[in-house]
């Protein structure tokens, strides 16, 4: 199990505390320092069963600068998928957090206690 975190994020700290409380074995990836490649982002999206715009923090300053809410420039379909993935790799702060990759090959965006427990049960 791996968890992608930003240590400044309270939801990430809460997820780590719950993993520790439950005695889980996991590795931590500080994804702002150890930035995921586009291939790693594609792989985690496949594990999540989501699209890149589903895990993008669109309220971040970088998102506003890139104009990610402009659906003509940033289509949310197959034609825009690679551009979104490239944006996440270039601006990792835009990646929703925390993300836990579970032992069964799936992943969850673990923003709630329920989601963390879901990852633990897999």
UniProtKB/TrEMBL annotation:
Q: Which InterPro entries match?
A: Arsenate_reductase, Arsenate_reductase-like, Thioredoxin-like_sf
Q: Which keywords accompany this UniProt record?
A: Oxidoreductase
Q: Which domain of life is it from?
A: Bacteria
- Pfam name, any one: ArsC
| GO MF term list | arsenate reductase (glutaredoxin) activity
Q: So where does this one cross the membrane?
A: none
Against PROSITE patterns, the record matches this protein to:
ARSC
Transport as a keyword of this entry, yes or no, is no
Q: Member of which family?
A: Belongs to the ArsC family.
Record-given protein name: Arsenate reductase
User: Which species is this UniProt entry from?
Assistant: Streptomyces aurantiacus JA 4570
Its taxonomic path starts at: Bacteria, Bacillati, Actinomycetota, Actinomycetes, Kitasatosporales
